[in-house]
Amino acid sequence: MGVIIGTAGHIDHGKSSLILALTGVDPDRLKEEKARGITIELGYVFLETVDGESVSFIDVPGHEKFVKTMVAGVATVDCFLLVVSANEGVMPQTREHLDILRLLEVNRGLVALSKCDLVEEELIELAEEEVREALQGTPAESSPVLHVSARTGYGMEELRKALLEMAADVDRKSSHGRFRMPVDRIFTLKGFGTIVCGTGLSGKINVGDSVEIQPSGKTFRVRELGVNEERYTETGFAGDRIALNLTGIRKEDVHRGSVAGEPGFLKTLSSLDTVCTMLQRNVDLLIRQRVRFHVGTAEVMARAIPVEGKPLLRGETGYVHFQLEHPVVAMPGDRFVIRRYSPVVTIGGGTILDTGTRKVRSRFREARLQHLDLLTHGELEDLVFETLEDAPGYFFEADNFIRQTGAEPVDFNKAADSLVEQGRVLSVGEGRARRLILTVAVEDIQRKILGSIGTIHRNVPLSPGLSSAHLARKLPPDTAVWVVRLCLARLQDAGEIQKRGDYLCLRSFSDKLSGDVLKLAESIVSDVESAGLRGVKLPVPGRRKEDIEALLTRGLFISLDENLITTEHFVEKVRQIVTSSFGSSSFRLGELREALGVSRKIALLWAVVLDGRNITKRVGENRVLVSGD
Question: What is the pLDDT of residue 328?
């Protein structure tokens, strides 16, 4: 897992020359760049540490026409190398690059005061004073300022040492989550095809893995993989500069601004809620103002709608909803920059709070602001609980919450565990499969289950209980299967219900028939038995359907077919008739009909029952009693 350092600074202040002097590699690779002597595209070079690891440099253009390329370059860096020419000092693009770094929260870095061989000491001191003034009031105001000259080598060893020390102290990106890599470079190699490059933001990627490219939505297999300067490796981690050789990909399937990730993980978005800070010295953000929206390595046009319903003034921080003209891939927690449509200048930026959000409606504005306040200032524990309260069924999967909010898995689990300990939330499963549900929602479903079972006991006392297969019909249609299982397990553990076979009953319910209930059962059985071997057609006159089904469930009745029932008593009677009539001799269906004294249809139904119970078996067109019966 590597460290990425991005350059910044005004055009012709010597960024590329310093990188060349540090690494021995010229980051300017295009013919046009070498001919014009300016950086046009992002350049990538590497510096080896004493431990054999690599520090990656992304060299960005300094010209104002290529600021969008600069933003794409520094969107994934860990720290910066700001280059300011000693003979010119702080210039307009120096300030804009500093603004962009601050808006993206790239707050750690150092300053190289370049071309010190060209000016007197007095001018060097003046230039350094300008730099410190530009950094004043920013998180980077204490950054070291080193005096260097790429041409003479003056101060270069000190610069190299300072860069490596800074890199060694940078917190590495986490490789525990799902793989995500904003694409900042695409090129084609003869014999290899299209190569897709970027900086890993999270997770890891292996040769042979499938990777999804969004917004195109297409999935490809990783044929080969390069990390930093290594052409062929097996695994790329978060923080590495990764080059993916993908099977079957075409150049039109991917562009700068695309994101590569684990299939099913990435979402394309056309709307976002953010907390946005406007730069002090530029312009106000008007309602529905058209801006250039930069996130990751992407730039799209967007309409800005301040959530409070009034312009966001320069220097102010507030909540802004963006309607994007083209979809992007982003997650809560990602930083963004906005630039004016025309004239093009950086005006603000901030953090994405929520994604896929609806347009701002005045009647819901207060609730929207409260929600965004919670996302910005609230505890993660409160956000988890609020999300559960708003979720369908009052539950969610941990993996979806982490993806939608950008929360770190460790922090999420800590918040979830705290809610579970407080008894406000119940948890099922672990890791990505973990689910949370409000305790009150589970208790409500448990009450419904108890009520449904109790109703069965009261209304159909002959029934052994509520059929598990019919339980779902008694609950809200959006009740998930795992929630039902959780509720049943809790009720059983508490001793409130019992599961007898496929039926649920209350703890106090006796499975044995007695008293008036037993008399009712005997009366119904007597009615059915009065029909003899012919059975009784359903519905049974004068008897409730529910009572007949209950006695069928208890095994007091059997079905000759779907509309005809009889009792177990007659199964034994038919067996005795067959035994006495035929003994060990075979018999035909017509003979069985005569022995039973019923119609051919009823005889056939009894033959099926006898075969099904292994009392008889077919031998060609005949039947015989099974030995031992």
Answer: 94
Residues in the chain: 629
What is 378-511's CATH topology? Arc Repressor Mutant, subunit A (1.10.10)
End-to-end Cα, the chain, rounded Å:
77
Same topology, domains 180-261 and 268-368? Answer is yes
Q: Is-cis flag, bond preceding 343, omega within 30?
A: yes
User: What pLDDT was estimated at residue 541?
Assistant: 84
Question: What pLDDT is attached to residue 629?
Answer: 43
Q: Residue 172 has which token pair?
A: 């590495």
- The pLDDT-based confidence of 351 (bands split at 50, 70, 90) is very high
Distance CA 102, CA 79 (A): 11
Asked if the 3-168 domain carries CATH number 3.40.50.300, the reply is: yes
Domain range annotation of the chain = 3-168, 180-261, 268-368, 378-511, 516-625
> pLDDT > 90: what percent of the chain?
37
For residue 346, the surrounding DSSP H or E stretch is strand 346-355
Model pLDDT for residues 436-466, shown as the tens digit of each residue: 999 999 999 999 999 999 888 888 888 888 8
Q: Which CATH number fits domain 268-368: 2.30.42.10, 2.40.30.60, 3.40.50.1820, 2.40.30.10?
A: 2.40.30.10
DSSP state of 503: E
User: For the segment 273-323, what is each residue's pLDDT rounded down to a tens digit?
Assistant: 999 999 997 789 999 999 999 999 999 999 999 999 999 999 999 999 999
Pick from 399, 436, 434, 408: which is nearest to 265 by CA? 399
What pairing do the DSSP bridges indicate for beta strands 3-8 and 79-85? Answer: parallel
pLDDT score, position 38:
57
**Between the CA of residue 621 and those of 481, 584, 594, 606, 617, what are the distances in Å?**
48, 16, 17, 16, 11
User: Across all residues in the chain, what is the average pLDDT?
Assistant: 87
d(CA 170, CA 11): 28
Give every CB contact of residue 477 below 8 A, 6+ residues apart in sequence: none
DSSP code of residue 479: -
Please state which CATH number belongs to domain 180-261.
2.40.30.10
Any idea which fold 516-625 has? Arc Repressor Mutant, subunit A (1.10.10)
Structure tokens at 542: 């004068």
Calpha distance 329→296 (Å, rounded): 8
